[in-house]
């Protein structure tokens, strides 16, 4: 794959799945703000992660995919049909928005049934039951939503979005605020949908969520598609970039001297302790590793040889923004 202004596609490496959702040169601007800039992508069945930092344009993109928002330029198609101003396509689409717009005075069953009726399903009751079972809410379905935990509310929203069994399910930051158990449950559900041949796209600004859930990612940065394809290849690019760590040890000075002689290390800086109490920062060494893999093998060996105890090793530049700016070649 390649990175930079031209996004790369790894689809050739995976068996060619028929494209269900296709974006052709899609842009969207709000006044002077270009939220999405000339994005072309095509998605087939399975789970895909839409990864990008806050403000990258993920929500705007998902809303255009769902037919909620008009592209300023370009076209979004589902199964060959444009999503904008085409209500027939809504039958094939489900969207779980980022914001929690659920009426707490309704029970989950009432809420999901309302969605089934909006879709004019012939048997709204049966569809509601099926959706409730899918998200595992049967035992709580007749309780008011305002008595639910965050994860349960999210499941009710997912059930409402898939009550009509759409081919494409779009989810905007579905794991926000969930605890690990709720997260696992949601991941299982999305996998089940994918196994049933559905096209599932979820947005996230957290690398690990995408890693756990999906083999394929679309990386969006500042409105543009920055990379696209196999997660492991993109991850490898991320780990082969230069890394910074802050290390504290039983003897920082001796460790600094030893690390300076190590050729996987590009820079060593001694960081002073500052402040007291909550605002204090611990001192230690700031290391710039030229090669992450070799450095992580060398560090324990060097410490052992020097009789130095490592206390903490913390990545200093693991923010997703720094990974993204590396991916788009901005550093
Ligand atoms: N209605 C709007 N009017 C003006 N600007 C907007 C509007 N909606 C979004 N934007 C801008 O468009 C850009 C992309 O926003 P968008 O919400 O799509 O990003 P995002 O990746 O979903 O971020 P987040 O996860 O923070 O919601 C941002 O600069 C945002 O400020």
Automatic annotation (TrEMBL):
InterPro entries with a match to the protein in the record: AAA+_ATPase, ABC_transporter-like_ATP-bd, ABC_transporter-like_CS, P-loop_NTPase
UniProt KW keywords: ATP-binding, Nucleotide-binding, Transport
**Which residue ranges does the record assign to the ABC transporter domain?**
21-247
Write down the superkingdom of origin: Bacteria
Any one GO molecular-function label of the UniProt entry: ATP binding
Q: Which family does it belong to?
A: Belongs to the ABC transporter superfamily.
Protein name per Swiss-Prot or TrEMBL: ABC transporter ATP-binding protein
Which species expresses this protein natively? Actinocatenispora rupis
Taxonomy, top ranks, is: Bacteria, Bacillati, Actinomycetota, Actinomycetes, Micromonosporales
């Amino acid at each position: 794959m390649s990175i930079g202004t031209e996004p790369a596609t790894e689809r050739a490496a995976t068996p060619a799945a028929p494209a269900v959702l296709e974006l052709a040169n899609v842009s969207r601007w709000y006044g002077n703000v270009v939220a999405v800039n000339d994005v072309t992508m095509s998605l087939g069945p399975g789970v895909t992660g839409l990864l990008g930092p806050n403000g990258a344009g993920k929500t705007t993109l998902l809303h255009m995919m769902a037919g909620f928002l008009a592209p300023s330029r370009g076209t979004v198609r589902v199964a060959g049909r444009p999503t904008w101003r085409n209500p027939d396509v809504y039958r094939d689409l489900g969207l779980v928005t980022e914001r929690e717009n659920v009426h707490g005075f309704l029970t989950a069953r009432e809420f999901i049934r309302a969605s089934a009726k909006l879709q004019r399903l012939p048997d709204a009751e049966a569809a509601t039951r099926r959706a409730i079972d899918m998200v595992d809410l049967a035992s709580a379905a007749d309780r008011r939503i305002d008595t639910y935990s965050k994860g349960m509310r999210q499941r009710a929203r997912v059930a409402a979005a898939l009550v009509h069994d759409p081919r494409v399910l779009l989810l905007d930051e579905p794991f926000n605020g969930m605890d690990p158990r709720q997260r696992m449950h949601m991941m299982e559900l999305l996998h089940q949908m994918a196994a049933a041949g559905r096209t599932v796209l979820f947005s996230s600004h957290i690398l690990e969520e995408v890693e756990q859930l999906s083999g394929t990612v679309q990386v969006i940065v500042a409105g543009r598609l920055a990379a696209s394809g196999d997660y492991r290849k993109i991850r490898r690019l991320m780990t082969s970039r230069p890394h910074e760590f802050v290390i504290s040890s039983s003897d920082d000075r001796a460790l600094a001297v030893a690390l300076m002689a190590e050729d996987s290390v590009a820079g060593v800086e001694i960081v002073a302790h500052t402040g007291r109490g909550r605002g204090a920062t611990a001192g230690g060494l700031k290391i710039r590793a030229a090669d992450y893999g070799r450095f992580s093998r060398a560090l324990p060996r060097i410490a052992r040889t020097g009789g130095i105890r490592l206390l903490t090793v913390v990545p200093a530049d693991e923010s997703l923004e720094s990974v993204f700016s590396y991916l788009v070649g901005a550093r």
